[in-house]
Amino acid sequence: MICVETIGKIRRGHRVNKLSVSEIARRLSASRDTIAKYLDSEITKPQYKTRAKRAPVMGAWVVKEGG
């Protein structure tokens, strides 16, 4: 999981320290694709896909309390 601080380290390493994508990935233990994604975009917070909630398997058989 990438936090805002890590995104800052990625950009600082590339823009200020002139490190390659491979070197940044090695130092931060992240994939080169992830590093490239955050360098190419102006995203400041990581965005994650949300999954749709699943219905309970036994949903139809659950007896409601107080009913």
Structural write-up:
By secondary structure, the chain is mainly α. The protein has a domain at 4-46. It is 43% helix and 0% strand. It contains three helices and no strands. The protein has helices spanning 4-15, 21-28, 32-40. The longest helix has 12 residues, at 4-15. It is rod-shaped, with a radius of gyration of 21 Å. The termini are far apart. The mean pLDDT is 85.
Query: In whole angstroms, how far apart are the ends?
Result: 43 Å
Mean pLDDT across residues: 85
What's the number of helices? 3
List low-pLDDT spans: none
Oligomer: single chain
Strand proportion, as a percent range, falls in under 5%
Radius of gyration: 21 Å
* SSE ordering: HHH
**Residue share in helices?**
40-55%
Number of strands: 0
Output the structural class: mainly alpha
User: What summary fits the major beta sheet?
Assistant: none
Shape: rod-shaped
